[in-house]
Amino acid sequence: AKHMAKRELLESARLLRNLTADAGATLIVNDHLDVALAADADGVHLGQDDFPIPEARKILGPGMIIGASTHSVEQAIRAEAEGADLINVGPIFPTKTKETSVEPVGVELIARVKEAINTPQTCMGGINLSNVRQVILSGAERPAVVSAVVAADDIAEAARLLVEEIRKAKEERDSLK
User: Fold this and answer.
1) Which of 103, 100, 104, 96 lies closest to 151 in space, CA to CA?
2) DSSP 124-135
3) Does residue 177 have a pLDDT over 80?
4) Which of 13, 96, 103, 124 could make an S-S bridge to 39, C-beta 3.0–4.6 Å?
């Protein structure tokens, strides 16, 4: 919802907060610190050009989650040092989910970031059923997908197939250790 009006975004976030609260799920608002606070979200996810992490922590306090998008090892190290609770690495592959001027970083960055920091990580960007095995074998624990599920004809089946492929890839990776 990058281009959604702020009031509409807040209304959607409040609806999602009700749904996630009922389901016992976590709600993280992308980019908008003010919307995260007003909707009583569990946290906010900030990009490289968004509100700085140290200032966001001052406003949010210690209880809310702060995620950070990173595109290099250096950015991941800085985000961890600044207090991010979660680091996202990407885009791994080309993606049309959101407009970005960042070139795909490739699966190699997953392992390099995992080695450099201790903060939990996700990775995203162009991940789908045909390449999620490669992502997991590269060291990812928490791949995130959007288009691979929401653009599918059968969303539930697409999600089920992805979860199964992730499980199999993790078993394969663990057996190689």
Assistant:
1) 96
2) -SS--TTTHHHH
3) no
4) 13
Q: What is the DSSP letter of 143?
A: B
pLDDT one-digit tens code per residue, 70-102: 999 999 999 999 999 999 999 999 887 656 667
Residue 2's closest CA among 98, 74, 100? 98
Cα(first)–Cα(last) distance of the chain, in Å? 40
Identify the CA nearest to 139 among candidates 92, 100, 95, 81.
92
Q: For position 176, what pLDDT does the model report?
A: 84
Name the 3-class secondary structure at 55. helix
Of all residues in the chain, the percent with pLDDT exceeding 70 is 97
54 alpha carbon, distance to own chain's centre: 19
